[in-house]
Amino acid sequence: SCLYVPTLMTAVYNQAKRSPCVLRFHIASEGGWDIGVSTALSLDALITWQGLSLGYGIALALVGAAAVFVTARRYYRAHPTEQVEPHQPEFASQPTETARI
Predict the structure, then answer these.
(1) What is the pLDDT of residues 10-56, one digit of tens each?
(2) Which ranges of the chain does DSSP label H, i.e. alpha helix?
(3) Distance between CA 82 and CA 17 in Å, rounded?
(4) In 3-state terms, what secondary structure has residue 4?
(5) How many whole angstroms separate alpha carbon 76 and alpha carbon 26?
(6) Nearest Cα residue to 29 out of 71, 81, 84
(7) What pLDDT digit, counting tens, does each position of 43-78 carry?
(8) Of 24, 49, 57, 79, which has fewest CB within 10 angstroms of its CB?
(9) Which of 11, 22, 4, 15 has the alpha carbon at shortest distance from 64?
(10) Angle at CA 95, nearest 5°, toward 91 and 96?
(11) Distance (Å, rounded) from C-alpha 18 to C-alpha 2?
(12) How many angstroms separate the CA atoms of 39 and 101, rounded?
């Protein structure tokens, strides 16, 4: 999770900043993600209920992971200058006064 989330979310947030309405973008993208996950979980439940091997459910998850990889790769090929920037806390560069006792 710590390897793909920053890369994937950077692409999502940059697209949201360029969209006409950030709120609608996030609602639509979250809805799409939820529909995809719900569909895959329902198919996995059906596969398990039918008595098939759990390997089919794992293969379905690999299809989803491949779709995320292809989508992210397509985005970063179209926007090669965008990258994940390391987090730097604002307070690290400016000391603050401490309370005196």
Answers:
(1) 889 989 999 999 999 999 999 999 999 999 999 999 999 999 998 99
(2) 5-18, 22-49, 54-78
(3) 13
(4) coil
(5) 19
(6) 71
(7) 999 999 999 998 998 998 899 889 989 998 999 888
(8) 49
(9) 4
(10) 90
(11) 25
(12) 60
Closest CA to 8 of 61, 67, 60: 67
C-alpha dist (Å) from residue 3 to 8, 27, 43, 73, 88 = 9, 24, 27, 15, 18
Contact 41, 20 (CB under 8 A): no
- DSSP character string of 43-67: HHHHHHHTT--HHHHHHHHHHHHHH
